[in-house]
Design brief:
This protein has 445 residues and is an alpha/beta fold. The protein contains twelve helices and 18 strands. It is globular, with a radius of gyration of 21 Å. The two termini are 41 Å apart. The relative contact order is 0.20.
Protein backbone atom coordinates (compact mmCIF):
# COMPACT_ATOMS: atom_id res chain seq x y z
CA UNK A 1 0.00 0.00 0.00
CA UNK A 2 1.41 3.38 -1.01
CA UNK A 3 1.43 6.57 1.03
CA UNK A 4 3.31 9.86 1.12
CA UNK A 5 4.18 9.80 4.83
CA UNK A 6 6.31 7.80 7.24
CA UNK A 7 4.79 4.35 8.00
CA UNK A 8 4.26 5.31 11.65
CA UNK A 9 1.51 7.70 10.54
CA UNK A 10 -0.40 4.73 9.11
CA UNK A 11 0.22 2.26 11.94
CA UNK A 12 -3.31 1.24 12.91
CA UNK A 13 -2.01 -0.84 15.82
CA UNK A 14 -0.75 2.34 17.47
CA UNK A 15 -3.65 3.99 19.38
CA UNK A 16 -3.77 7.77 19.22
CA UNK A 17 -2.72 9.17 22.61
CA UNK A 18 -5.21 12.00 22.56
CA UNK A 19 -7.19 13.56 25.37
CA UNK A 20 -10.36 12.80 23.44
CA UNK A 21 -9.73 9.06 23.48
CA UNK A 22 -8.87 9.11 27.17
CA UNK A 23 -12.00 11.10 28.02
CA UNK A 24 -14.28 8.13 27.30
CA UNK A 25 -13.10 4.54 27.00
CA UNK A 26 -16.30 2.48 27.06
CA UNK A 27 -17.46 2.76 23.46
CA UNK A 28 -18.29 -0.63 21.94
CA UNK A 29 -15.82 -2.27 19.58
CA UNK A 30 -17.00 -3.29 16.13
CA UNK A 31 -16.15 -6.70 14.65
CA UNK A 32 -13.76 -7.44 11.84
CA UNK A 33 -15.34 -8.62 8.61
CA UNK A 34 -14.75 -12.37 8.42
CA UNK A 35 -17.18 -13.49 5.73
CA UNK A 36 -18.42 -12.71 2.26
CA UNK A 37 -21.44 -10.41 2.38
CA UNK A 38 -23.52 -8.33 0.00
CA UNK A 39 -24.82 -4.79 0.35
CA UNK A 40 -26.51 -2.09 -1.66
CA UNK A 41 -23.70 0.35 -0.77
CA UNK A 42 -20.21 -0.36 0.57
CA UNK A 43 -18.59 2.61 2.28
CA UNK A 44 -14.83 2.82 2.61
CA UNK A 45 -14.00 4.81 5.72
CA UNK A 46 -15.58 4.87 9.16
CA UNK A 47 -15.19 8.56 9.94
CA UNK A 48 -17.72 11.41 9.97
CA UNK A 49 -18.39 11.15 6.23
CA UNK A 50 -18.80 7.40 5.93
CA UNK A 51 -20.85 7.06 9.10
CA UNK A 52 -23.10 9.96 8.14
CA UNK A 53 -23.65 8.41 4.72
CA UNK A 54 -24.51 5.05 6.29
CA UNK A 55 -26.81 6.69 8.85
CA UNK A 56 -28.74 8.64 6.23
CA UNK A 57 -28.88 5.78 3.71
CA UNK A 58 -30.42 3.52 6.33
CA UNK A 59 -32.58 6.02 8.22
CA UNK A 60 -33.87 8.14 5.33
CA UNK A 61 -33.82 5.76 2.37
CA UNK A 62 -33.85 2.20 3.77
CA UNK A 63 -30.73 1.36 1.75
CA UNK A 64 -28.45 -1.33 3.20
CA UNK A 65 -25.02 0.14 3.90
CA UNK A 66 -21.81 -1.54 5.02
CA UNK A 67 -18.98 0.53 6.50
CA UNK A 68 -15.39 -0.74 6.23
CA UNK A 69 -12.93 0.93 8.62
CA UNK A 70 -9.22 0.10 8.42
CA UNK A 71 -8.68 0.54 12.18
CA UNK A 72 -11.09 1.29 15.02
CA UNK A 73 -13.82 3.95 14.79
CA UNK A 74 -12.25 7.34 15.46
CA UNK A 75 -8.65 6.29 14.75
CA UNK A 76 -8.20 8.70 11.83
CA UNK A 77 -8.89 12.40 11.44
CA UNK A 78 -12.47 12.13 12.72
CA UNK A 79 -11.37 11.08 16.19
CA UNK A 80 -8.28 13.21 16.67
CA UNK A 81 -9.13 16.69 15.30
CA UNK A 82 -9.74 19.88 17.28
CA UNK A 83 -13.49 19.43 17.61
CA UNK A 84 -14.48 22.61 15.76
CA UNK A 85 -18.00 22.14 14.42
CA UNK A 86 -18.00 25.22 12.22
CA UNK A 87 -17.87 26.62 8.71
CA UNK A 88 -14.69 26.68 6.65
CA UNK A 89 -14.08 23.50 4.63
CA UNK A 90 -12.46 25.32 1.69
CA UNK A 91 -9.10 27.05 1.45
CA UNK A 92 -10.21 29.10 -1.56
CA UNK A 93 -10.85 32.73 -0.56
CA UNK A 94 -14.48 33.74 -0.90
CA UNK A 95 -13.57 36.56 -3.27
CA UNK A 96 -11.79 34.13 -5.57
CA UNK A 97 -14.67 31.66 -5.37
CA UNK A 98 -17.09 34.37 -6.48
CA UNK A 99 -14.74 35.39 -9.29
CA UNK A 100 -14.24 31.81 -10.46
CA UNK A 101 -17.70 30.28 -10.05
CA UNK A 102 -20.07 33.24 -9.67
CA UNK A 103 -21.85 34.71 -6.66
CA UNK A 104 -24.82 32.33 -6.79
CA UNK A 105 -22.61 29.25 -6.66
CA UNK A 106 -20.55 30.72 -3.83
CA UNK A 107 -23.74 31.51 -1.91
CA UNK A 108 -24.93 27.92 -2.39
CA UNK A 109 -21.62 26.72 -0.93
CA UNK A 110 -21.89 29.16 1.99
CA UNK A 111 -25.39 27.90 2.75
CA UNK A 112 -24.17 24.30 2.64
CA UNK A 113 -21.53 25.08 5.27
CA UNK A 114 -24.09 26.76 7.52
CA UNK A 115 -26.41 23.79 7.01
CA UNK A 116 -23.59 21.40 7.92
CA UNK A 117 -23.32 22.85 11.43
CA UNK A 118 -27.09 22.70 11.81
CA UNK A 119 -27.08 19.06 10.66
CA UNK A 120 -24.60 18.01 13.36
CA UNK A 121 -26.69 19.74 16.03
CA UNK A 122 -29.82 18.05 14.63
CA UNK A 123 -28.26 14.57 14.75
CA UNK A 124 -26.87 15.14 18.24
CA UNK A 125 -30.28 16.22 19.54
CA UNK A 126 -32.23 13.51 17.73
CA UNK A 127 -29.94 10.69 18.86
CA UNK A 128 -29.25 12.10 22.33
CA UNK A 129 -25.47 12.07 21.85
CA UNK A 130 -23.15 13.20 24.65
CA UNK A 131 -20.49 15.23 22.84
CA UNK A 132 -19.38 17.86 25.41
CA UNK A 133 -20.90 20.63 23.33
CA UNK A 134 -19.43 24.03 24.24
CA UNK A 135 -19.39 27.63 23.07
CA UNK A 136 -21.52 29.51 20.58
CA UNK A 137 -20.11 30.29 17.13
CA UNK A 138 -16.43 30.81 16.43
CA UNK A 139 -14.08 33.79 16.34
CA UNK A 140 -11.23 34.51 13.92
CA UNK A 141 -8.48 36.55 15.56
CA UNK A 142 -5.88 39.06 14.42
CA UNK A 143 -2.45 38.16 15.79
CA UNK A 144 -1.04 41.52 14.58
CA UNK A 145 -2.48 45.01 14.85
CA UNK A 146 -1.84 45.48 11.14
CA UNK A 147 -4.54 42.88 10.43
CA UNK A 148 -7.37 44.61 12.29
CA UNK A 149 -8.62 46.55 9.27
CA UNK A 150 -8.57 43.38 7.18
CA UNK A 151 -10.85 41.70 9.71
CA UNK A 152 -13.31 44.59 9.53
CA UNK A 153 -13.29 44.44 5.74
CA UNK A 154 -13.85 40.70 5.84
CA UNK A 155 -16.91 41.06 8.08
CA UNK A 156 -18.35 43.69 5.74
CA UNK A 157 -17.64 41.52 2.69
CA UNK A 158 -19.40 38.50 4.20
CA UNK A 159 -22.42 40.55 5.21
CA UNK A 160 -22.75 42.14 1.77
CA UNK A 161 -22.33 38.97 -0.30
CA UNK A 162 -23.79 36.26 1.93
CA UNK A 163 -25.94 37.98 4.51
CA UNK A 164 -23.62 36.62 7.18
CA UNK A 165 -24.18 37.86 10.72
CA UNK A 166 -20.47 38.19 11.50
CA UNK A 167 -19.52 40.93 13.95
CA UNK A 168 -16.23 42.75 14.44
CA UNK A 169 -14.89 42.42 18.00
CA UNK A 170 -12.37 44.93 19.32
CA UNK A 171 -9.52 44.12 21.71
CA UNK A 172 -11.55 45.53 24.59
CA UNK A 173 -14.55 43.41 23.64
CA UNK A 174 -12.37 40.31 23.43
CA UNK A 175 -11.29 40.92 27.02
CA UNK A 176 -14.91 41.41 28.08
CA UNK A 177 -15.82 38.11 26.40
CA UNK A 178 -13.14 36.26 28.38
CA UNK A 179 -10.69 36.02 25.45
CA UNK A 180 -7.65 37.91 26.73
CA UNK A 181 -4.20 37.31 25.27
CA UNK A 182 -1.41 39.83 24.66
CA UNK A 183 -0.91 38.30 21.22
CA UNK A 184 -4.47 38.75 19.98
CA UNK A 185 -5.75 42.19 19.03
CA UNK A 186 -9.24 41.93 17.51
CA UNK A 187 -11.60 39.39 16.02
CA UNK A 188 -14.64 38.62 13.92
CA UNK A 189 -17.35 36.57 15.61
CA UNK A 190 -19.38 34.18 13.48
CA UNK A 191 -22.51 32.98 15.34
CA UNK A 192 -22.52 29.66 13.46
CA UNK A 193 -20.63 26.86 15.18
CA UNK A 194 -19.70 25.24 18.48
CA UNK A 195 -17.07 22.99 20.01
CA UNK A 196 -17.41 19.26 20.64
CA UNK A 197 -15.45 16.18 21.61
CA UNK A 198 -14.81 14.57 18.20
CA UNK A 199 -14.10 11.13 19.68
CA UNK A 200 -17.48 11.11 21.41
CA UNK A 201 -19.21 12.45 18.31
CA UNK A 202 -17.73 9.99 15.81
CA UNK A 203 -18.49 7.04 18.09
CA UNK A 204 -21.96 8.37 18.80
CA UNK A 205 -22.55 8.72 15.06
CA UNK A 206 -21.39 5.12 14.59
CA UNK A 207 -23.86 3.95 17.23
CA UNK A 208 -26.65 5.90 15.53
CA UNK A 209 -25.78 4.40 12.14
CA UNK A 210 -25.71 0.89 13.61
CA UNK A 211 -29.05 1.47 15.34
CA UNK A 212 -30.49 2.55 11.99
CA UNK A 213 -29.38 -0.77 10.50
CA UNK A 214 -25.93 -0.13 9.01
CA UNK A 215 -23.29 -2.82 9.38
CA UNK A 216 -19.96 -1.49 10.66
CA UNK A 217 -16.71 -3.43 10.49
CA UNK A 218 -13.43 -2.38 12.11
CA UNK A 219 -9.95 -3.71 11.34
CA UNK A 220 -11.27 -4.30 7.82
CA UNK A 221 -9.01 -2.38 5.47
CA UNK A 222 -9.81 -2.67 1.78
CA UNK A 223 -6.75 -4.34 0.27
CA UNK A 224 -8.18 -5.17 -3.14
CA UNK A 225 -10.94 -3.73 -5.30
CA UNK A 226 -12.24 -5.42 -8.43
CA UNK A 227 -15.34 -5.82 -10.58
CA UNK A 228 -17.29 -9.05 -10.96
CA UNK A 229 -20.10 -8.65 -13.42
CA UNK A 230 -22.01 -5.54 -12.40
CA UNK A 231 -20.78 -5.68 -8.80
CA UNK A 232 -17.93 -4.03 -6.98
CA UNK A 233 -15.97 -6.49 -4.87
CA UNK A 234 -13.99 -5.10 -1.95
CA UNK A 235 -11.56 -7.52 -0.35
CA UNK A 236 -10.42 -7.14 3.26
CA UNK A 237 -7.87 -9.31 5.10
CA UNK A 238 -10.56 -11.82 6.13
CA UNK A 239 -13.65 -11.00 4.11
CA UNK A 240 -15.26 -9.70 0.94
CA UNK A 241 -18.11 -7.31 0.23
CA UNK A 242 -20.10 -7.36 -3.00
CA UNK A 243 -21.92 -4.11 -3.55
CA UNK A 244 -23.82 -2.29 -6.27
CA UNK A 245 -22.25 1.02 -5.27
CA UNK A 246 -19.14 2.13 -3.41
CA UNK A 247 -18.61 5.39 -1.56
CA UNK A 248 -15.05 6.62 -1.08
CA UNK A 249 -15.38 8.39 2.26
CA UNK A 250 -11.69 8.49 3.05
CA UNK A 251 -8.97 11.03 2.76
CA UNK A 252 -5.47 11.59 4.06
CA UNK A 253 -4.96 8.10 5.52
CA UNK A 254 -5.98 6.34 2.31
CA UNK A 255 -3.53 4.27 0.31
CA UNK A 256 -2.58 5.86 -3.00
CA UNK A 257 -3.29 2.57 -4.79
CA UNK A 258 -6.73 1.91 -3.29
CA UNK A 259 -8.17 2.34 -6.78
CA UNK A 260 -6.33 2.89 -10.08
CA UNK A 261 -7.93 6.30 -10.57
CA UNK A 262 -7.56 7.53 -6.97
CA UNK A 263 -3.83 8.17 -6.62
CA UNK A 264 -2.48 11.69 -6.95
CA UNK A 265 -5.77 13.43 -6.16
CA UNK A 266 -5.28 14.49 -2.53
CA UNK A 267 -2.55 16.11 -0.48
CA UNK A 268 -2.19 14.84 3.10
CA UNK A 269 -0.97 17.56 5.49
CA UNK A 270 -0.06 17.47 9.16
CA UNK A 271 -1.77 19.13 12.07
CA UNK A 272 -0.74 18.83 15.74
CA UNK A 273 -2.47 19.40 19.08
CA UNK A 274 -1.45 19.84 22.70
CA UNK A 275 -3.81 19.80 25.70
CA UNK A 276 -3.11 21.06 29.21
CA UNK A 277 -4.12 19.69 32.56
CA UNK A 278 -7.38 21.10 33.95
CA UNK A 279 -7.00 24.64 35.26
CA UNK A 280 -8.92 26.14 38.16
CA UNK A 281 -10.90 29.38 38.11
CA UNK A 282 -8.01 31.37 39.62
CA UNK A 283 -5.66 30.23 36.84
CA UNK A 284 -8.22 30.96 34.13
CA UNK A 285 -8.94 34.35 35.66
CA UNK A 286 -5.25 35.25 35.89
CA UNK A 287 -5.00 35.00 32.10
CA UNK A 288 -8.48 36.38 31.52
CA UNK A 289 -9.45 33.49 29.25
CA UNK A 290 -12.70 31.94 30.41
CA UNK A 291 -14.75 31.58 27.22
CA UNK A 292 -15.29 28.15 25.63
CA UNK A 293 -15.95 29.63 22.18
CA UNK A 294 -13.74 28.00 19.51
CA UNK A 295 -11.21 30.47 18.10
CA UNK A 296 -8.40 30.57 15.58
CA UNK A 297 -5.85 33.09 14.39
CA UNK A 298 -5.68 34.18 10.75
CA UNK A 299 -2.16 33.04 9.95
CA UNK A 300 -1.70 31.06 6.77
CA UNK A 301 -0.35 28.30 9.01
CA UNK A 302 -3.06 28.94 11.55
CA UNK A 303 -3.41 28.06 15.20
CA UNK A 304 -6.78 26.87 16.50
CA UNK A 305 -7.64 26.67 20.18
CA UNK A 306 -10.44 26.49 22.72
CA UNK A 307 -11.11 26.02 26.40
CA UNK A 308 -12.60 22.61 27.19
CA UNK A 309 -15.42 22.00 29.68
CA UNK A 310 -13.13 20.74 32.46
CA UNK A 311 -10.74 23.71 32.28
CA UNK A 312 -8.19 22.15 29.95
CA UNK A 313 -6.89 24.23 27.07
CA UNK A 314 -6.59 22.62 23.66
CA UNK A 315 -4.15 24.33 21.27
CA UNK A 316 -3.42 23.12 17.76
CA UNK A 317 -1.67 24.25 14.62
CA UNK A 318 -0.78 23.42 11.04
CA UNK A 319 2.70 22.74 9.78
CA UNK A 320 5.30 20.00 9.79
CA UNK A 321 6.51 18.11 6.76
CA UNK A 322 7.39 14.70 8.15
CA UNK A 323 5.43 12.14 10.16
CA UNK A 324 8.64 10.53 11.35
CA UNK A 325 8.34 10.40 15.17
CA UNK A 326 11.29 12.72 15.86
CA UNK A 327 9.99 15.30 13.40
CA UNK A 328 6.52 15.12 14.95
CA UNK A 329 8.01 15.76 18.39
CA UNK A 330 9.73 18.88 17.08
CA UNK A 331 6.52 20.13 15.51
CA UNK A 332 4.64 19.52 18.76
CA UNK A 333 7.35 21.50 20.57
CA UNK A 334 6.63 24.38 18.17
CA UNK A 335 2.90 24.17 18.90
CA UNK A 336 3.57 24.18 22.64
CA UNK A 337 5.85 27.22 22.26
CA UNK A 338 3.08 29.07 20.38
CA UNK A 339 0.64 28.22 23.17
CA UNK A 340 3.03 29.61 25.82
CA UNK A 341 3.49 32.81 23.80
CA UNK A 342 -0.25 33.44 23.59
CA UNK A 343 -0.81 32.64 27.27
CA UNK A 344 2.10 33.91 29.39
CA UNK A 345 0.09 33.51 32.63
CA UNK A 346 -0.04 29.77 31.95
CA UNK A 347 3.71 29.24 31.64
CA UNK A 348 3.56 26.88 34.63
CA UNK A 349 0.63 24.81 33.34
CA UNK A 350 1.63 21.29 32.34
CA UNK A 351 0.86 19.78 28.96
CA UNK A 352 -0.67 16.33 29.50
CA UNK A 353 -1.42 15.20 25.94
CA UNK A 354 0.29 15.72 22.58
CA UNK A 355 -0.64 14.16 19.26
CA UNK A 356 -0.65 14.71 15.52
CA UNK A 357 -2.72 13.68 12.53
CA UNK A 358 -3.32 14.13 8.83
CA UNK A 359 -5.84 16.33 7.10
CA UNK A 360 -6.75 16.28 3.43
CA UNK A 361 -6.20 19.04 0.86
CA UNK A 362 -7.42 19.15 -2.74
CA UNK A 363 -5.49 20.74 -5.58
CA UNK A 364 -8.39 23.16 -6.22
CA UNK A 365 -8.87 23.91 -2.49
CA UNK A 366 -12.56 22.93 -2.25
CA UNK A 367 -14.41 19.82 -0.99
CA UNK A 368 -15.70 17.20 -3.43
CA UNK A 369 -18.94 15.20 -3.23
CA UNK A 370 -20.40 13.32 -6.17
CA UNK A 371 -20.38 10.43 -8.60
CA UNK A 372 -17.37 9.33 -10.63
CA UNK A 373 -18.75 9.77 -14.13
CA UNK A 374 -16.40 7.34 -15.87
CA UNK A 375 -16.41 4.82 -13.00
CA UNK A 376 -19.97 3.41 -12.75
CA UNK A 377 -21.21 2.90 -9.24
CA UNK A 378 -18.37 4.82 -7.54
CA UNK A 379 -19.07 7.89 -5.43
CA UNK A 380 -16.81 10.16 -3.40
CA UNK A 381 -16.99 12.62 -0.50
CA UNK A 382 -13.69 14.09 0.71
CA UNK A 383 -11.26 17.01 1.07
CA UNK A 384 -12.38 19.29 3.90
CA UNK A 385 -9.08 21.12 4.38
CA UNK A 386 -8.86 20.54 8.10
CA UNK A 387 -12.47 21.44 8.85
CA UNK A 388 -14.47 18.26 8.41
CA UNK A 389 -16.53 17.82 11.58
CA UNK A 390 -19.57 19.55 10.11
CA UNK A 391 -18.78 19.33 6.40
CA UNK A 392 -17.92 15.65 6.60
CA UNK A 393 -21.30 14.99 8.21
CA UNK A 394 -23.08 17.07 5.58
CA UNK A 395 -21.11 15.50 2.73
CA UNK A 396 -22.03 12.03 3.92
CA UNK A 397 -25.71 12.96 3.75
CA UNK A 398 -25.21 14.69 0.38
CA UNK A 399 -23.48 11.59 -1.02
CA UNK A 400 -26.32 9.39 0.24
CA UNK A 401 -28.80 11.65 -1.53
CA UNK A 402 -26.80 11.53 -4.76
CA UNK A 403 -26.81 7.72 -4.66
CA UNK A 404 -30.59 7.50 -4.30
CA UNK A 405 -31.57 10.49 -6.43
CA UNK A 406 -32.63 12.54 -3.42
CA UNK A 407 -32.80 16.32 -2.89
CA UNK A 408 -29.95 18.27 -4.47
CA UNK A 409 -28.06 20.79 -2.34
CA UNK A 410 -24.52 20.86 -3.75
CA UNK A 411 -22.94 23.72 -5.69
CA UNK A 412 -21.84 22.53 -9.10
CA UNK A 413 -18.13 23.03 -8.50
CA UNK A 414 -17.87 20.39 -5.74
CA UNK A 415 -19.61 17.67 -7.79
CA UNK A 416 -16.56 16.54 -9.76
CA UNK A 417 -13.78 14.32 -8.39
CA UNK A 418 -10.73 16.07 -6.92
CA UNK A 419 -8.42 16.96 -9.83
CA UNK A 420 -5.05 15.27 -9.94
CA UNK A 421 -2.04 17.26 -8.86
CA UNK A 422 0.40 17.94 -11.71
CA UNK A 423 3.27 15.46 -11.39
CA UNK A 424 1.71 14.05 -8.21
CA UNK A 425 4.95 12.42 -7.05
CA UNK A 426 6.18 15.96 -6.36
CA UNK A 427 3.42 16.68 -3.82
CA UNK A 428 5.80 16.65 -0.81
CA UNK A 429 7.86 19.32 -2.58
CA UNK A 430 4.74 21.36 -3.36
CA UNK A 431 3.81 21.27 0.32
CA UNK A 432 7.31 22.22 1.42
CA UNK A 433 7.30 25.19 -0.96
CA UNK A 434 3.85 26.28 0.20
CA UNK A 435 4.87 26.11 3.86
CA UNK A 436 7.99 28.15 3.23
CA UNK A 437 5.91 30.74 1.41
CA UNK A 438 3.25 30.79 4.10
CA UNK A 439 5.88 31.18 6.80
CA UNK A 440 7.29 34.21 5.03
CA UNK A 441 3.83 35.73 4.57
CA UNK A 442 2.96 35.17 8.22
CA UNK A 443 6.19 36.89 9.27
CA UNK A 444 5.67 39.89 6.97
CA UNK A 445 1.93 40.61 7.02
Amino acid sequence: MKHLYHPSALDTDNPVKSWWRESKTDFPAYPELEAEIEADVAIIGGGFTGLSAAYHLQRDHNVQAVVLERSYIGWGASGRNGGFCCMGSSKMPWSKMIEKFGLEEAQTFWRSQKASVELVAEIVDREGLDIDKTGVGEISLAHKTTLIDALKEDADFMAKNFGAKEVFVSKEELVERGLNSPGLHAGVANPVGFGLNPWKYVNGLAAAAAKAGAKIYAKSEVISWQREGGKHVLVTPRGRVKANKVLLATAAYTSEDLHPDYGGRIMPALSSIVVTRPMNQNELGAQGWTSTTPVYDIRYLLHYFRLLPDGRMMFGGRGGLSAEPGALDRQLDNIEAAFRAYYPEWRHVEITHRWSGLLCLAQDLVPHVGAWDDQPGIYFAMCYHGNGVAMGTWSGRAAARVMVGGPEERPNFIRRPPPKFPLPFLRPLYLRGAYIGYGIKDALK
